Amino acid sequence: MSSKSLLKSLLAIPSPTYKETEKANFIDHWLGEHLPELSRTRKGNNIIAQSDMNQGTTIGFVGHIDTVPAFFEPYEDGDLLHGSGASDMQAGLSSMLWFIKENKSQLLKKYNIVFLIYDKEEGTPIHENGLYELIQNNTSLIKSIDLAIVGEPTNNAIQLGCVGSIHFTLKVMGKAAHSARPWHGKNALYEAIPIIQKIANISPKKQSIYGVDFFDVLEITESQSTPGRTTIPECWQANINYRFSPTHRLDEAMAYVKDVLNSTGVPHELDCLNAVDAGSVIEHPLLDKLTETFCIEAKQAWTDVAQLTSLGVCAFNFGPGRQDQAHHPNECVSIGDMLHYESLLYDMLLEDQK
Predict the structure, then answer these.
(1) What confidence score (pLDDT) does residue 292 get?
(2) Is 266 in the same domain as 176?
(3) Which of 24, 150, 204, 270 measures 20 to 30 Å from 232, CA to CA?
(4) Do residues 22 and 108 share a domain?
(5) Last residue of a domain, one of 276, 292, 310
(6) Per residue, what are the HEC states of 286-348?
(7) Total domain count, the chain
(8) Please, which pLDDT band fits residue 268 given cuts at 50, 70 and 90?
């Protein structure tokens, strides 16, 4: 058996968001068979596997079990293993589990281990997220983690923090009229042009933290007008998405978007659809050491690192998955990348025991 065969087993089990029970059952059984040294607590499809907490440093391994692309039977193509969620993030889960299994004696002599495995990560509101549920019920344990590795796809680089994200629903109203007689109405789309132009002219703004660069980005991601081929649209509606670096608080980010829109002078309605804070970069001696030998980047996306750093836990994204494969309809991962990732985990945590 290998991490590759473990990954093939995981990929063979469909686990779309809200339907992860079969995969959780498989992992729960696998832990009992291959890592009996770790005690397990399960609630729903969320699992905590932990060692005796009697060492100085606690390492957390963190991964979600739900996948986004429609399920398809996994298959191999040379070095690539295809399957729903292969890169995001079943490969990370498989490699972390296998790494602990293969090195458990050395690891447990040096560290406390806490493995957080959870459901409902992909596209869910934060209060339904499985890690959120674990945190609510196990706050003290999770806050005791000194360094947490979140197995999101990062191309084997360490990606620090994460950007926050706010989605707003924006409406600009006009007045409907027949398109042959537009002077009877007011075209909502035309009314919105100053807003569209304002946002189009805002360039990404770089924010540097801990030697890595995040970017504040404001974009219109959806846009539609009241339908009707012969009707002047009464309403223009858009989704406004602001991705902001850890240099900003959530309330500051909200205020910034409102200020941008108000500065156009266009009357509008604005509702917050979803908002999550950025993930901080929390320093730790182990992290300081890793920056000397590992590729270090910023995470220009939102991940559950934000939930962990909000508790004061030093957490970063680090996984073998390929970022350009995440959510791809024919998603794949390189087996070579997985093996390299496992060697990097060894260098990261057990280098002095070579």
Answers:
(1) 86
(2) yes
(3) 270
(4) yes
(5) 276
(6) HHHHHCCCCCEEECCCCCCHHHHHCCCCEEEECCCCCHHHCCCCCCEEEHHHHHHHHHHHHHH
(7) 2
(8) very high
